[in-house]
Amino acid sequence: MSKPQLTQRELDIMSVLWELGEATAAEVRDRVDPGLAYTSISSMIRMLELKGYVGHRRGEGKTHVYFPTIEAEAAGETALGRVLDKIYGGSPLKLLTHLMEQRRLSEPELARMRELLDRQPKDG
């Protein structure tokens, strides 16, 4: 069964944890939004823990140190699937067309895309 979907703020928190490997709630808050109340970040991290995205260990004193329990790529597959279905009607072509119109791709990226396209099974 797949994990519950992440909100934008939860993705922001997960990005910090993926980048740092582990962090306290205060460290996450400082990177996500220093103006956000500590209790708000702490609550969001606890929700991520309940959803199965985050674990924790005891730090110094009463501090908890949080860490991701899922790889960024795995979460990205779920998020990309949602975008593909909801925004592009399930069409990889529409998604790829939009990507290529909005972003300049490097030659190595284009070469890799061509390689992937060449490996696709032919219809008929």
UniProtKB/TrEMBL annotation:
It comes from the Bacteria. GO terms for biological process: negative regulation of DNA-templated transcription. The keyword Cell membrane does not apply. The keyword Lyase does not apply. GO terms for molecular function: DNA binding. It holds the Pfam family Penicillinase_R. Keywords: DNA-binding, Transcription, Transcription regulation. InterPro entries: BlaI_family (IPR005650), WH-like_DNA-bd_sf (IPR036388), WH_DNA-bd_sf (IPR036390). Belongs to the BlaI transcriptional regulatory family. This is BlaI family transcriptional regulator. The lineage of its organism: Bacteria, Pseudomonadati, Gemmatimonadota, Gemmatimonadia, Gemmatimonadales.
